[in-house]
Predict the structure.
Amino acid sequence: MNHLVLPLKIAICWKLLTIILLGYIIYSVKMYNFEQSAGNQRIKKIILVGTSETTRDPRTINTGRYSPWNQNLLKQSYNHNFIFNKNTIRFYSTSNVENNTKDLHPLKTYENFKENRLAILKEQKDKSGVYCLINRINGNAYVGSSIHLASRMRNYLNNTFLKSKQNINMPIVKALLKYNQESFTLLILEYVEPDYLTIRETYYITYVMPHYNVLKQGYSSLGYKHTEETKELLSELAKNRTHSEETKGLIARALTGENNPFYNKSHSIESKVRMIEAKSAYPVYVYNSYKKLLVIFPSVSTLAKLIQSNNSTIIDVIKEQTIFRGEWYFTNLPYDINNTPIISNWTSSKECEQLILNINNSSHIRKAVFVYDNNKNFLCKYEGVTKAQDALNINHSTIKKHAKLGSAYNGYIFSYERLIK
DNA sequence: ACGTGTGATACCGTTCGCAG
DNA sequence: CTGCGAACGGTATCACACGT
């Protein structure tokens, strides 16, 4: 038995090898045959399958996989989270002097921050409230709050404190050092109970739009933008983080059912195309009976749905290279790499719609019969042997027999495929 | 992490062309 | 008309990509 089987095996292997080489050279991509790949793919003859990394013919589909779309989405969601912030801070100007300090009604004004030092420390002792420092040279301001106003001011008047590592990055600190405290005016805006400090500070920040405030909301990091270095650091710290079971449970609960941000939403056409592309093992090339490349579909399933067929059927057609519904061929590798499909876009073109319509209208055709004369001139195509029988008055079994053999009968040549000269 | 969606496959009953 | 077998259709299942 083995002796008989061997030549067949060799033949198949040779076919495989040829196609693998061809595919490999042309595409330079990973190719599998179905026998080698476990699991999903089962086609056993000559089908070659690319992985999801398969490089597509550039003519195939223009919806690139690496579009910046994702990034845009990220940006959108980011902005969305900060809508409040956008509304409140968008009036902040990069030109420094535009602020509303002139309209403030302070409880107390110290024209010269440095010279009024003693008065400030004495009068603001044990006071809790919101203050504003204004640079008289350029008009820039800082709004802050403290439960101990005097202590806070003492710090601002203390250059050693200002120069310390933990404070030196603050714009107001830099300004105090650069322009000297005597260039600043201190306003005591409001005395506030500690519990309400944040609210009142935020109120004044949004009202004044002070240039020196980095954070746009009192006691909150809202509006702060980390430097690239900080982000790098945070990134590194987060990389090996493992969540506890409790945390995971919380995450799960927060994302289950209606809580999931994607609940009841659906993917856009673009997303769906990307998913098809990413998931598809290989594209499907659609040819007509003349073996002219009509269009390329991104996956078997896409095609199956459109032509109201199913995966199994199409895979069989690809595998056996049989003509489908009497007119079309499907392949997962092009007959000729140089061919350009007549229809370039399968998603939205009248031509493709028409093609799909034609294929669907032919769903009743199982084995069409092409009839030729003795000189192989095409005469007619019938939807099946019975139709040919009725038209030509030749028994259907006779037609079938000669179609199989390819032999002439009574001046006719019958074929299940179009004969291409 | 979960919800949505797709691809591929297996499986099985139904449909339908075909042959006798 | 009937039985056969290919084609078809529907669904369950798994794996996983994408979006939030």
Remarks:
- Chain A has three domains: 10-63+275-361, 89-208, 369-415.
